[in-house]
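The records we work with from here on pair a chain with its fold. The integers have meaning only within a learned vocabulary of local backbone shapes. A complete example follows; check for yourself that the lines match position by position.

:::
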Amino acid sequence: MSDIYKFAAQNGLRFPLKRGDLVAEQLFQLPLKSQSGFDLDTVARAINSQLKGASEESFVEDPSSDPRKLALSVSLDIVKDVIKTKQEENRAALARLARSAERKKLLDAIGAKKDQQLTAALMEELEKKLAELDA
């Protein structure tokens, strides 16, 4: 299936949660995991259980012709895609934080070096003035 989100919209797919069903766009608001069970992992597990329960084999019918299995399979693919997207976003955010922390360290080091140079220059000037007073 090339466009699973289009399929979800056209077929009115819903994603089960204890508090009620969600539409695809609401999945992006859920955390990956939570203590409350209101998360993407719970949704994926529920759909996967339904898919396994619906997978009794028939020796007469083509399994790909079952619309319920197709809807469950697409639903699971969508949840997996949302999970993958959120994981990539989390990795990118961590990388940004690491770069930001490194940048701050470098700026602090540059500031310390400049302070050190300024202090050294002031020391020389102070010694020069002291020498002039002694002369």
Observations:
- The two ends are 92 Å apart (CA to CA).
- The chain has a mean pLDDT of 88.
